[in-house]
Amino acid sequence: MTAVRYGLGDTGPAIAEIRTKLTLLGLLDDTAPGPSTFDHDVEHAVRQFQQERGLTVTGVVDTTTYRVLDEARWRLGDRLLSYVVANPQAGDDVLALQRRLCELGFDVGQVDGVFGARTGEAVRELQRNVGLTPDGTCGPSTFKALDRLAPIVTGGRPDSLRASEALRRAGKRLSGKVVVIDPGHGGDDSGNVGNGLDEATVVEDLATRIEGRLAATGVQTYLTRGPGSDTELDEHERARFANETGANLVVSLHVDAHHNPIASGVATFYYGGNRPGTTSAIGEQFAGLIQREIVARTDLVDCRTHPKTWDLLRHTSMAAVRIELGYITNESDAARLADAEFRDVVAEAIVVAVQRVYLPSGEDAPTGVLHLQDLAEA
Ligand SMILES: [Zn+2]
């Protein structure tokens, strides 16, 4: 898909289409045939939509917003749903299907609105249970069965309970775990720049420091791109890579920027939106641990953790987090980022957070005191 970017003042058929979609979602009240200008009302509606969906709120329809806007039109039953390996179906109907399967006690993995292999398996399982041909395709008879069945799981979050249980069963040893480290940007895309630094180089170096430490604890580590690699990967390609490795966790590394040089601090993001039942429980926990460890060991400002539906977080089938480690445009954040010792401290914080994910609560040592030697013996 070619890059999309529509904003204030743009006109044409694409804008008319965007207005129609926003109207269908009740965010705009155009009467047909509507105007075809991207005005302040559209901008406001787009912001509201981005806020609701956990996207970055810009008021601009970029490629991701455009796609999510398109996904929002589907209602359960509008189309056949099945697992398409090369290009998985995504939309609000898939999300509704996953929620329903979850209530019925089937394991769909993350409720993310993407019809992946596990959703397909859950559909087969349902079909076997109700005596339908287990072909994994949701058509009229499967929709009917979904309507008919009463939920067997009430209260709580069956998906997060299942995720926590899987985590507990995985054991607390780091050895045998697989972690994907994803240094953002690369190739011709150097990411954010400022104070003589560029984001791509900083996160590349940090990634190799994390990789070395994880390897020492027995974790198998994959990098989405090596230092100095000249390939540009989009978020989908990075997610696909992570899924292919069968990783337990994904850590994506970025450095933020702002036109105001005062903006500073570290924030960590996990999969989740404002719609109920869509948050990755393990992702949220992992993000919280990373944020805590980094804040405890450095003097970066704590910009907290936040749910987002960014592509890498959504299309990965395991818990994934994205760290925005300081602002490259802030003089003192940049000075820290330039310091090799600081990068080592952050790398250690991240490795300790990885271990803490697997430590059953109660055995969890207080933040900031666990060292790598302890982990190797755990
Ligand atoms: Zn970045």
Automatic annotation (TrEMBL):
Top-level division of the source organism's lineage: Bacteria
Domain MurNAc-LAA: from-to ranges: 239-355
Any one GO biological process: peptidoglycan catabolic process
Keyword rRNA-binding: no
Entry keywords, A to Z: Hydrolase
InterPro entries named among the record's database cross-references: MurNAc-LAA_cat (IPR002508), N-acetylmuramoyl_amidase_3 (IPR050695), Peptidoglycan-bd-like (IPR002477), PGBD-like_sf (IPR036365), PGBDSf (IPR036366)
Name of the protein: N-acetylmuramoyl-L-alanine amidase
Extent of the signal sequence: none
GO cellular component: outer membrane-bounded periplasmic space
Pfam families listed in its UniProt record: Amidase_3, PG_binding_1
Gene Ontology terms for molecular function: N-acetylmuramoyl-L-alanine amidase activity
SUPFAM superfamilies per UniProt: PGBD-like, Zn-dependent exopeptidases
Originating species: Phytoactinopolyspora halophila
